[in-house]
Amino acid sequence: MLNNFYKQFKSGTDIRGVAVDGFEGQKLNLTDEVVASMARGFALWLGGKVRKPVNTLTVTIGRDSRISGPRIAKIVADELCSAGVRVLDCGLASTPSMFMTTVDLGADGAVMITASHHPFNRNGLKFFTRSGGLEGSDIEKILEFAQNGEKAPEAQGAVESCDYMTQYKEHLKDIIKKGVSAENYDKPLSGFKIVVDAGNGVGGFYADVLNDLGADTEGSRYLDPDGMFPNHVPNPENKEAMKSICEAVRESNADLGVIFDTDVDRGGAVDKSGNEINRNRLVALASAIALEGNDGGTIVTDSITSSGLKEFIETDLGGKHYRYRRGYKNVIDKGLELNAQGINCPLAIETSGHAAMRENYFLDDGAYLCTKIIIKMAQLSKEGKNIESITASLKEPKEETEIRFEITEPDFRACGERIISDLTAYAEETEGWILADDNREGVRVSFGENDGNGWFLLRLSVHDPIMPLNIESDSEGGVEIIKNKLYDFLRTTKGLKL
């Protein structure tokens, strides 16, 4: 069992904490010794996982641009080395590239030092084996080793520098060359203007990929790594970040814009008119691409996707929509599970921009997703079409909102589950409330044209004492109508800060 101190670091399938001191209410907890204990715990766990002595392991280490990255990377490298591990230090790298080191370099495991889109003072550790990212139970085991001070016998390992990102970029370039199959094979993006917004994370390398393939990337923004993130949060879900890439596309008259989060496991795009290809529209575009050659295939998404998206996938594309749960690892695991059952599932995608394709190891890779979008853009251009034409029939809501209710009871999970159970019973008994027959998280209820013309989803947050509420409506004023209907129930509950 984890004690309260080590339990605080578990964030789903990652480890996260405060890595920079000096912020009120955020005490530094990823200290040198704590990080060292986690590195020792990972070495023990990995040896058991791949069934090899720890002193015969090879592990790669990469980091995003956060200011605490070099400190944490050195500690992890030193601790692994002291257990006899051969360490390949990849320096600044993307999270997906670190998984790919287990494929291309034959590494037994990989450590990525990142906290994704979180503020610069936070950081964390993300782990991979050749099987993919770890499960929550694996993280618990690593933290238990750390908590108990367990470690492998001392031995003499070595730390080597490794420029894997160059190889990873060549991999992406080859995919685009083959996918576009232009007359000028080595410069398939000649004549296209594509701008990149890396938000000062590690995604600036993607502009180099595009330049080498002949694209004009002038007008790209914030390509240089800067761990203080001085311009905007590197996050495709952030309004300021999306405003930035939309402006870049319009100002440079670009054919396409792409944006990444800090460690490039998520991506988003902007069409030539400066309109976002994000959330439901991004899922729709990725689904259209993934279903090519996979007629009738199943697309796994998270729970908050719109009704219009389901209609688009099933009616317009002829696929099947499997609406699952929030959490990128949840949708990926479900995609893997469906394929193992013999169900053709080429894509698992969350509206946050985590997109994992079966053809790419079910790895959520923002650069790979944007690469597939760019290939499709170039292919359509040969036909005189644009990327927007693919999702032109997607019906999008007129109104939408998200409200996040704080849970005030100490056992927040029990409180949230009780509210969900009571709301389910209430919906079943209330006229005009239509419970979704394909919902697998929280409570999703739809309403007819005269009752709000939309739906709500109330669920329990994956990690936090929060109940997010999403509401969408196809009519003006519909969100307010649905909100008021739900409030009649919520005001009778206990444990929610309304």
Task: Give a quick summary of the entry.
With 498 residues, this protein is α+β, with helices and mostly antiparallel strands. The chain has helices at residues 4-7, 32-50, 69-82, 95-104, 136-148, 164-180, 205-212, 239-252, 280-290, 307-316, 328-340, 366-382, 412-429, 478-490, and strands at 10-11, 14-18, 58-63, 86-92, 109-113, 122-129, 132-133, 158-161, 194-197, 256-260, 267-270, 276-277, 298-301, 320-323, 347-349, 355-357, 363-364, 399-407, 434-435, 443-447, 454-458, 466-473, 496-497.
Identify the notable features of this structure and list them briefly:
20% strand; 14 helices; Alpha-D-Glucose-1,6-Bisphosphate, Chain A, domain 3; 498 residues; alpha+beta; globular; TATA-Binding Protein; single chain; 3 domains; six-stranded antiparallel beta sheet
